[in-house]
Amino acid sequence: MNERFVGIQIGPASFVDEGVDAVLDTLQERVGVNVILLGTVSWLGLKIGRSISWRIDGWPDHGVPEPLEVQGGSYLADHPEFYRNTSITNFRAPDEAMRDRDILEMVIPGARARGMKVIPELMEPLFKYAGHGSANTVQIPNLVQYMEVDYLGRIGGAPCQENPAYRTWWHALIEDHCRSYDIDGIMWCNERRSPLDQLVTGMAPGCFCRHCLVAMSAGGVDPEAARRACSLLHSYFRRARAGEHFTDGALITGLRVLLDNPEFLLLERHWVRRNKDLDRELYGLVKWCDPALEFGLNVWNRNHFNPFRKAQWPWAETKDYADWVKPITYQHQSGGIYLGEMKQLHATLLRDLAPAEMTPIMYRILGLDEAPWDELMGAGMRPSTYVGGQCRDTIEALDGELPVLMGIGVDAPRSSPDQAACTPEIVYESVHAAYSNGAAGVIYSPNYASMRLTNLDAGARALAELGI
Length: 468
Prior knowledge:
CATH class: Alpha Beta
Number of domains: 1
Distance between the termini: 14 Å
Radius of gyration: 22 Å
Helix content: 40-55%
Number of strands: 12
Number of helices: 19
Shape: globular
CATH superfamily: Phosphoenolpyruvate-binding domains
Strand content: 5-15%
CATH topology: TIM Barrel
Strand order of the largest sheet: 1-2-5-8-9-10-11-12
């Protein structure tokens, strides 16, 4: 990627609140942005609304300083011809401010007039996602029929990606974007939790819906053996979390249950493969619509904070189904994210190890070099070591064959007042760290609606110093 790429993630609310021309002028002339990564379909306030953490972070220095309750959905015009092969057809956002408006039709003409790219950004999960400002209700008729089913037979909280109607709906949604609008590509983010993720976080693993049972059998997994394995492992994790004494300790006992039940490992591998298959399908669909369109992967920070996920999601394989990647490195927020990830492990498998003692070891395992456990929440992660380090490691893992666009956190929502806050210095240093370690560009994230212009100004200053 030889051309300049300075992107920003932004939702419909900002353009409605501040006006399309005013926002585009500010982003181009003041911030130096030339790529708009626009949320178009979501039920998550973080993607489509105003700040979701205003009670902790206050309001930014632009936009409307009032809470906005969004119902979510599609912020595009209806194109029913693309959805004839799926039963999910009634999902246009009912929000009053966007009624009968199409966010891409609103933004594309002004962006084109300014020489700016427009790339819709889409994300799984779409509906219920802790920390992302989920809508209170999802008003899609019959959506419950597509939900995951855990090993106990209970309907879960997210549609099953193996369900043909839901998977076909994603295919239709991507084709609709690519064929109906003059866009430059798609940025796709897939943040679904695997069965192992579910166990570690205290959930009953799945999915065991009828479609998954068929897919398991076709993939060489015995569904009933996998169900029994899930039951035994779920029992272990619940007992570990409850503080039950294990003669051989929590880690050895957990490994014993896992190794005694290899059907669970087969299920986990099967699930991960099918999850990645969706990424590959969408990449191929975009290229079939127009080979010139870009397909970028917006990659979960848990993939470098969790040792299991880091092993399961190697960067190298994305060379086959992406044009560029964006590692999520929201530096000021990341201390809290890492702590949350590790607390789940320290409540179960690593229960017998003090977090402060384990942290330097886990840092070595994950390739991190950050503040001690007790300081991490308030310190966040350093731009030079975290943003720069992840950039360098990603480029190396990709053998330099894919452009790496670093996701720079600008006022990413905090979960508590003691979590590190974003500052101009953090943004300035992060931009420098990205480019000095070989980044092909940066993407300010996760949503312009919560970003302070004073923090974005610092990024613009760094870009000017770098001659970008």
